[in-house]
Amino acid sequence: MIPYGRQSVNEDDIDAVAQVLRGDWLTTGPTVTAFEEQLAALSGASRCVSATSGTAALHIAYAAAGVGPGDEVVTTPMTFVATASCAVALGAKIRFVDIEDDTANIDPVALDAAVTDDTKVIACVDYAGHPIEIDAVNETARRVGALVVEDAAHSIGSTYKGRPVGSLADLTTFSFFPTKNMTTAEGGAVATLDPELGRRAHEFHFIGLVRDRARMRYPDEGPWHQEVHEWGLNYRLPDVLAALGISQLRRLAAFKERRAAIFARYQEGLAGVDGIRLPTQREHVDPIWHLYPLRVLGGRRREVFDAMRADGVGVQVNYIPVYWHPLFEDLGFKRGMCPNAEQFYAEELSLPMHAELTDAQVDKVIDAVRGAVGS
């Protein structure tokens, strides 16, 4: 079976992890700091805070933004559930906004119409690696005094109008799960240009601990003293995984190049095939493709999914609209509220997309698509 996504780990990656295992620090040490600094340099952020997962990064970002009970968070339904559920975990009220028909990203026009003066955070997702229309989103956020969280789980290494993802929103979250564009095995990070948001993110992921004497309530307690001023959790990425992250960052440009080549090969090989719709790329973005979201028309997605799996191609579907999950149904959300997202879900089929795919495997996938749709 050709997997739809998988990690790419080489001997340099393994050696980097082994060096940390032979050293003095397994966690909360210098390798974490080095990883965060290199990640900030890549993303154009002033500070990055690493985390144990992309979900943890979202939780951290919402906490840093001050999301609490009753606050309104406006987001997209076309994402993994954590984009919304992490805000709900902090007591937020969620409002879903429909997506653009071509990119599957949040629709900036619909977003501008949906926000209110009660909106605390606008959370958008770079679906498949294609950046959102961040300039329009930021303009809407400033109009109502909201912060923007860019869920960039798919898009580390992407750029928008020449600017790197990580430098575009108030807070940006990354995921380093094995199927993502680079990996730390499990892991994530929060990037920001705002020093105060960076401090809040760091302290939340560090159990809320305050070690700055100037901010302590009891600074003369002793050199061992530390305080907790606000709730936090242990979301610290260990040095062992940060070492893998540093090694993977060195390979990210090569990963991006290979994914672009695979995307182009799919586009060429599937051009003109009836019954499908190919993904698009806008001229002002340079994405790192995490997914290849093919759309199967005519209500045949399940049929094509089953046929391709039987043919040894591990296709996937990304994603069920978030408000279809029972958790959100139980909060009162109804199907039908975001028709573009629901139509996209009904047609979307993720073809294999990862740096280890060979040209022969890509061609097999193309042949399997053609065979399954009857072209």
UniProtKB/TrEMBL annotation:
Needed cofactors: pyridoxal 5'-phosphate
MF terms in GO: transaminase activity
Protein's UniProt keywords contain Metal-binding: no
EC number: 2.6.1.92
Listed InterPro entries: DegT/StrS_aminotransferase, PseC, PyrdxlP-dep_Trfase, PyrdxlP-dep_Trfase_major, PyrdxlP-dep_Trfase_small
Enzyme class: transferase
Record bears the keyword Transferase: yes
Keyword list, A-Z: Aminotransferase, Pyridoxal phosphate, Transferase
Any single Pfam family the record assigns to this protein: DegT_DnrJ_EryC1
Family, similarity comment: Belongs to the DegT/DnrJ/EryC1 family.
Name of the featured protein: UDP-4-amino-4, 6-dideoxy-N-acetyl-beta-L-altrosamine transaminase
Native source species: Terrabacter terrigena
